[in-house]
Amino acid sequence: MDFFKFVLGPYEFFSSIIGGIPLVLAIFLLYNPAISVQELILTLQTDFSIQFLVVLFFFSYLLAGLIQGITWKLFLALCDVFGQSYHYFKDELILERDQSLQAMGRDLDLHRLDFEDKLVLLLREKVGIPKNIGWIYSRLHAYLKENNRPSVVTADLYQATHIMYRNIFCGFLLISLVILLNLIRVRAFIFEQLALSVLFVLLAYVAFLRSASFKRWYSREVILGFYFAACQQ
Questions:
Q1: Where are the chain's structural domains?
Q2: Separation between Cα atoms, residue 43 and residue 33, nearest integer Å
Q3: CA 109 to chain centre
Q4: Of 129, 143, 161, 119, residue with least CA distance to 16
Q5: Alpha-carbon gap, residue 80 to 83, rounded angstroms
Q6: Nearest Cα to 90, choosing from 215, 208, 225?
Q7: In a 3-state reduction of DSSP, which class is residue 69?
Q8: pTM (2 decimals)?
Q9: pLDDT per residue over 140-177, tens digit each?
Q10: Which end of the chain is more exposed for a tag (fewer CB within 10 A), N or C?
């Protein structure tokens, strides 16, 4: 229990700070259109102090927490656009296998069932399969907290890292858009700024891929952690 509290709390705190920093920088550039990213970095280096760092971290943490709903919707939209899956075991497959097993009734040979069918049977037996399949992870979390606590810690670390990268790619996208908007506002064509905007888009895409990967690892840890814990009971 002490390990659970010690690891998860600070990790979520610092991942939120790191994920919120690009968002804070984007807002600063939006309100200062004449300043470039290079000039902003030099200004930060010149005015660096402990007080400034504390304020930056505070607003980063606060902003990252306030926009969770927006970043999640954007993440889902980009997953559809780029064909990225963030599931280890798709929710629709759980429902399909459950309906198929129910149709078979009691004529089941557990030794001949594959992993997916055994998993669905264990889900039905241990936590139940809700009508809203999106609630299944909440039930699995509750089950793992009682029967497989290390998997809860690992899964939540993956989830915190996913949220960090999710905020980072949203922040990078916002910075790219702000750079382009500022070029229009100051009525200047600067090739370096355009190239920097494209670079932030590429970095945002890489951060998005990492976010999707950690979300899949989270799903895998929850599903497999439940499966092996249920099999041991």
A1: 2-86+148-232
A2: 15
A3: 39
A4: 161
A5: 5
A6: 215
A7: helix
A8: 0.83
A9: 888 888 888 888 888 888 988 999 999 999 999 999 99
A10: N
